[in-house]
Amino acid sequence: MCDTHALTPAEPLPNWVPEAARVYLAHTEQGCSIRELARQAGCHASTVLRQVRRIETRRDDPLIDAALCNLGAAGPESPAQETRKDTDPMNAATTPMPPDETTLAREARRVLRRMCESGAVLAVAAEMDKAVVVRDTGDGGNTRTAVIDVAVAQAMALKDWIACEAPGRISRYRITAAGRAALNRLVAEQENRVRGFAEAQAGFDTGRAAEAALDEVERDPRARKGRYMLAESPLTALSRRRGKDGEPFLSDVLIAAGERLREDFELAQMGPRTAQNWDQFLMAGVSTTPGNGDDSGAAAQERLQAALRDLGPGLGDVALRCCCYLEGLETTEQRLGWSARSGKIVLRIALQRLRRHYEERAKGGGDLIR
């Protein structure tokens, strides 16, 4: 008897997998008949058949096809699958593990938020283990705004949060209406957990719920910064403002410097969970030396530390909050005790200093501002 909710008791499918995909996998991977699945679900066989056909037609999408292959590999093996694994011992090593529900929610909040920006697409190259979000700058150029594990991108595509507009060697995806609704829901749920944890601390201990909320905040520093705008980052909003001379308040090169700082921040969050309290780093006296590994997370931590150290308190604070935490200027002014409308001036000075920092690194053999 097939069970669409769990392929095996030991290895159930993640909770985020849509029901239609569970039915499809039970039919194609486990060999359950349409009528048997219909009897289990208590519906007509034609309903199950439509679910299976709908998922099958979506397999033209590279991410969805890969997600179904990976989820099928995670379940019980049919004789054909066992034969394939016997003839290809590298299959298990090259199949990315599907994310759990907590990881998917955390990464979706981060990536979908960037995909809400005007001109943003998620680009996935074949056989790469990472995908990137790229935003059109409007002058023929583009800037990278987020990096994500391809397994998480596969899950978002399977849940219809992103849709492919141009399949190919490098496929491009845009956020869907369902993705925007999911982002609003995920952000609201995160706020409720954080608010519930704060209330529990003031009153009584709620046990595991409070611990889970605290763990969420520790993993995602932006969780304690309050809700940020879902449409665009503070830098994008400032880039549209113009001074008395008609010139943009923030030039493209300053925007690029801020985005580069944010990119290193995002990559650092994907590394080890140690040495990531950037607020305390700016207060000085806190060691943030990464491990000895040469992975991209450790390298990003080193670059981020160097930039914040060069900016110092004040300039580093506003750059960290606006560029990395995506905190609005008014909120930043209030938290830092600054006068109203002073934040944008300090931010521009910080970005000018950050640009000089990256130019000096380039002279020493580092990367240029992209």
Describe the structure.
This protein has 370 residues and is an alpha+beta fold. The chain contains 17 helices and 5 strands. The protein has helices at residues 19-28, 34-41, 45-57, 62-74, 79-87, 91-94, 101-115, 150-158, 177-202, 208-219, 234-239, 252-269, 278-283, 296-311, 315-324, 329-336, 343-363, and strands at residues 120-125, 130-136, 142-149, 162-166, 170-175. A 5-stranded antiparallel β-sheet has the order 3-2-1-5-4. A hairpin with a 3-residue loop joins β4 (162-166) and β5 (170-175). α7 crosses α9, α9 crosses α10 and α12 packs across α15 (315-324). It is elongated, with a radius of gyration of 23 Å. Residues 5-10, 78-93, 202-219, 222-231, 272-278 and 280-295 have low confidence and may be disordered.
Features:
370 residues, alpha+beta, five-stranded antiparallel sheet, 5 strands, elongated
Major β-sheet profile = 5 strands, antiparallel
Number of strands: 5
SSE string, helix = H, strand = E? HHHHHHHEEEHEEHHHHHHHHH
Give the C-alpha Rg: 23 Å
Q: What oligomeric state do the depicted chains represent?
A: single chain
Strand order of the largest sheet: 3-2-1-5-4
Class by alpha and beta content: alpha+beta
Strand content: 5-15%
Q: How many angstroms separate the termini?
A: 55 Å
Specify the helix fraction band: 55-70%
Mean pLDDT: 75
Low-pLDDT sequence parts: 5-10, 78-93, 202-219, 222-231, 272-278, 280-295
Tertiary shape: elongated
Please, how many helices? 17
